[in-house]
Amino acid sequence: MKETFSPIRALLAAVVLVLAMPGAGRGEVLRFGVTVPARTVTVRAAMRPWADDVTAASDGALEVKLYPGGSLGRSGKLQYWMLKQGILDITWMLPSNTPNLFPSTDFFEIPLKTDDPMEMSLAFWRLYERGYLKGFEDIKPLALYVSPPYRFHLRFPYEDNYSLKGRKIRAVTYLQARMLEEAGATPVGGITTTQVAESLSRGLIDGALFSWHGVKPVGIMRATDVHVDQAITFAPAIIAMNRDVYETLSPKARAAIDALSGEPLIRRIVNAMNGAAVAAMEEARRDPQRQFVEADIDEAALWRERFAAAAEDWRTRSPDHDVLIERYDEILAEIRAEADAAAMPDGSR
């Protein structure tokens, strides 16, 4: 009888092969699996340097080996399972792939209180640290952060919000789909990041929501020539470690991870993404064949109404959300006060 192909069985076989490689079983070696390619700015400018720095800081007690491009498993939906099963020791994952596991993280898609990814990311992390976020009990988060804001990248001329009516726009999350429907567009799901450029080029979709830091690596800049400068959503992300593995590490190894994770790692990642986003936007602005649209006051107000409605819908989903919003506002004020203090000349306080 012919045996049917099993993706899980194939994945496990591949992992067994990797683990059998020389050096894979020696000492405290951590496998850090990332589904996005090595050329991605978050990998080359943040995750790989972090892995190298943790290895160096452990003074020989630990080695963090990075496996980008999904070499230990490409499915974003399986990253949490792979972490829990010990196939990966550390992974990068998007909570939108497993929304039931992290029920509060969709709040961090809404750019209502801020459209600054650093403010949002630090607030995201501090809410977790202070015990206000659920779903992280079985893993060891090393960083919680959001991307730069997702904006519209289109294949058709744009005059105002009504230009979206009837257009097919790629959407990833419930919030993105909701925003698009309220603008009269048709959200199209099921298109992975690597399929967006081809879907645009073939006319299967008319546009996509995407952060500027990723438009070049995935080919969206080649496939679109109209860009709308209005923040629509963020994309929350998680870097996490198998909690059992973390607990069994030597004190020196844990100390190296602790010292370089949390806010130091978040700042490294967000700064890398922001830098890439600014560079890509400036390059595109220099191209006379492209149209850049600045959202006017009325249109920005319309989007803020939609953000407020989405936030209110989120608030009513759980009795815990009122407290989380209150703490979020307090933490955001705290972060801004810290930034203001850091910007002051020495001795002015």
Brief overview:
This protein is α/β, with parallel strands linked by helices and 349 residues long. The protein has helices at 7-19, 41-57, 79-84, 117-129, 174-182, 196-201, 220-223, 243-248, 251-260, 263-285, 297-315, 321-343; strands spanning 29-33, 63-67, 90-93, 139-146, 150-154, 168-170, 186-188, 207-211, 226-233, 236-242, 291-294.
Helix and strand arrangement:
Elements: H1 7-19, E1 29-33, H2 41-57, E2 63-67, H3 79-84, E3 90-93, H4 117-129, E4 139-146, E5 150-154, E6 168-170, H5 174-182, E7 186-188, H6 196-201, E8 207-211, H7 220-223, E9 226-233, E10 236-242, H8 243-248, H9 251-260, H10 263-285, E11 291-294, H11 297-315, H12 321-343
Parallel strand pairs: 1-2, 1-3, 6-7, 6-8, 9-11
Antiparallel strand pairs: 3-10, 4-10, 5-8, 5-9
Helix pairs in contact: 2-9, 2-10, 4-10, 4-12
Which tags fit this structure?
single chain, 349 residues, alpha/beta, D-Maltodextrin-Binding Protein, domain 2, six-stranded mixed β-sheet, five-stranded mixed β-sheet, 12 helices, 43% helix, globular, disordered N terminus
**Number of domains as seen in the coordinates:** 2
Going by helix content, strand content and strand pairing, the class is: alpha/beta
Overall geometry comes to globular
Which superfamily, in CATH terms, is the homologous superfamily of the largest domain? Bacterial extracellular solute-binding protein, family 7
Distance between the termini: 79 Å
Overall residue-averaged pLDDT value = 90
Unreliable spans are 1-27
CATH architecture identity of the largest domain: 3-Layer(aba) Sandwich
Total number of beta strands: 11
Number of helical segments with 4 or more residues: 12
CATH class of the largest domain: Alpha Beta
What would the CATH topology of the largest domain be? D-Maltodextrin-Binding Protein, domain 2
Helix content: 40-55%
> Strand percentage, roughly?
15-25%
Q: Profile the largest sheet.
A: 6 strands, mixed
Radius of gyration over C-alpha positions, nearest whole angstrom: 21 Å
Order of helices and strands: HEHEHEHEEEHEHEHEEHHHEHH
Strand order of the largest sheet: 7-6-8-5-9-11
